[in-house]
Amino acid sequence: MAEKKKTTTKKTETKKPITKKAAPVKQEIKKQAPAAKPAAKPVATGSTTQQKPRVGVFICHCGTNIAGSMDIPTVEAYAKTIPGVAFVDNYQYMCSTPGQGKIEKAIAEHKLTGIVVAACSPRLHEPTFRTATKEGGLNPFRFEMANIREQNSWVHMHDQEGATDKAKDAIRIAVAKAALLLDLFPKKVPVEKAAMVVGAGVAGMQAALDLSAAGIKTYLIEADTSIGGRMSQLDKTFPTLDCSQCILTPKMVDVGREPLIELYTYSEVHEVEGYIGNFDVTIRKKARGVLTPTEATARGLIGGGCNGCGDCDAVCPVIKPNAFEMGMKPRKAIYINHPQVVPLIYTIDFDSCVKCGLCVTACGPEKLAIDLESKDEFIKVKVGTAILATGYELFPIEKKEEWGYKRFENVITGLEFERLICASGPTGGHLVRPSDGQTPKKVAFVLCAGSRDNTGNGKPYCSRFCCMYSLKHAHQIIEKIPGCTPYLFYMDIRSFGKAYEEFYYRIQDEGAKFIRGRVANIIEDPKTKSLHVMTDDTLLDRPVDMEVDMVVLASAVQPSDDTNRTRRLFGVSCSSDGWLLEAHPKLNPCGTTTAGVFLAGVCQGPKDIPDTVASAEGAASAASIPIHKGEVELEPYFASCIDEKCAGCGMCVNLCPYSALALVEKDGRTVMEVTEAKCKGCGTCGGFCPGGAIWMNHFTTPQIVAQIDAFLLGGEQ
Amino acid sequence: MSAPGNFKIPERGPGIWQPKIIGLLCNWCSYAGADLAGGGRIQYPPDVRVVRVMCTGRLDALFVLKAFADGADGVLVSGCHFGDCHYLEGNYKAAKRMFMVKRLMKSIGLDDRRFRMTFVSASEGAKWASVITDVVNTVTELGPSPITEFKNK
User: Fold this and answer.
1) Structural domain spans, chain A
2) Do A711 and B22 touch (CB under 8 A)?
3) What is the C-alpha separation between A495 and A504, in angstroms, rounded?
4) Which of A45, A54, A60, A113 is the most exposed place for a label (fewest CB within 10 A)?
5) Which CATH number is A639-697 given?
């Protein structure tokens, strides 16, 4: 820090020649690098620490993936000249069994102390080659990878010379690090025998049911007042035309009954601490204003608590739009979403409650379920793994002004259509025009409404299930309203699933009309409130202006409102469109880059119900593995303090995002101490320490400086 | 030479000076984004050499200065977007330090455009390619580092 301070204070003075500044900086690091090594001896416990480095370099051709873009013999010849390299080999596929065998054999034959494999990304094959290194008798952390595929041959495909030079440098940088690698030993930690599922839609419920069936205590957190999610709003499901509620309610009831599932509705994840096996999660249970029978009993009101009778609902004077019915039906300030809710407990919406107390009187002196003064509660639980199943919401389609949603009364979304056609919905299952309550004779469906839209005002991706639900809507219209014709304006009908294409043919045969063309504009007739749908029929190559009674927009979907906040709590990344990022799109679609956190359902990307349930079962299975194993290995990238260098300033203590560091007294001096269980190995402390007193395993200052020097100075300093 | 892809790649060949640029990348976002650019075969110039760390928070300001002292023509530090750090806030802390480096560079007469901190997420392969192209073009325009020239004197 002294060095830094000097330079920053000097900046106000005249500009001095660069060399004077550059030289002391360089000197300081030079001093720091070798000085740190002996101090690290207690950290490293390997037998080979003292030896002169003997690094083995293995260059992978990856078929022609790498060999096709660079000159492997030149790279290999160069690698032999790098200081510290004892052995160089190349092979077609290093990750194959013979390829790995080469590493194992060479370690013994050439007494190697470090391994460098120049191949693909360490994010892909580091574990593979670490295992091979271990099999060969070396500590697995004495392995370093040079990425010459993803970050070289694939991105410099037409620059043979540039790629070859870059590969040479990459290997030199990797060798410099490999020469300084030390033996490290992963830490084993026990795993809490409990899991958490965030979101109780069909994905979250399925995951929770699977986890509990595997004997794992599961905390199921739902932000809404009841479980069921989007699926509970649907009327029928394609292509089987099962009633959505009929197949969902048994699951909801099971979730409510299962003793191993602890259900928190009207709650959200407030804070997450810890790591795989030991997540400490704080749940915020929002003030509900109504006591469940259990809560009432806990307060000494035996036989009290809400039984869902609805007496309070009847007297409540406040009327609000019902979000579950997409605002098409009123609800009171004290409400339930629909008659089949699980748990059957009323909720007070304190944003609109006027606290008149009529509900308290109606509830009566026996149940005493209503508490108008209730406050948010914070509950701490400990879980081993967590599954995010936060689901989706509709893209606000009013942003696409050309289709007139929210400007024209008779333009509705697919989800509003679901509620209108549903027997338990606001109209009792009668599809009517919102403007006059008349039954429509012609209904237009606008597909890809906001999906597959590269204008910047929509979503670039396919929302995947809108084609199929629009086909189902068409079927429901034909079935329920004789003489009414559905017109589907589509770009492509994507009926990709099992029995989906057959369903498409069936709807065609039933008399639905298909017009291939993206709808350009919708205009309302101000007198009749009918709508003119304007498009270009791309099959007949002529413009279309069709007058219809009603338009249903198959709106795009986007991650639900709270997804972004929740994912950050769990340290999960998202893609540019907000969907949560899986660890690998093909090989690990349920996992995330945060160990112990998994994804289920639509939060990872649009899915229909079968895929959602399948992904939930996959996530549940993945989340149960560490719990059943009972312990997990943590990567040993911990920070530690070199006591002799630590001045006890305590800057690092404030920097640590995990509160893993503390100042302690040791031999009469104040020094920093790391709690390894809390340290996640980010190195933020090490990046700041003014005295260079922090030793970051596997990313030590000497190692990083050696890498920088290797590239710029061409080898050992 | 021009290669296919979305980005203009500067002329290369014998006699044309090529910059030495070091990229210090975080494992979770930028390194993954760079891998994604590879998977997508998005072509960019090959002048940046990468050193991977777990988090940009690990990066000491001295690493950057060391690279310049060693003769780097440019340094690129790339991490997660703010709020997306795998370790909650390492990138904020790195950014603070790197701003300090930029101020320091200005005050010692080293063009601060030689040093850049960017934020590229794991899903931004195309952005990674455009960042690299831009960094290489900027540094190529600035020419060899004055430190190298001084050392060679």
Assistant:
1) 2-186, 187-285+378-391+560-633, 287-375, 394-558, 639-697
2) yes
3) 7
4) A45
5) 3.30.70.3270
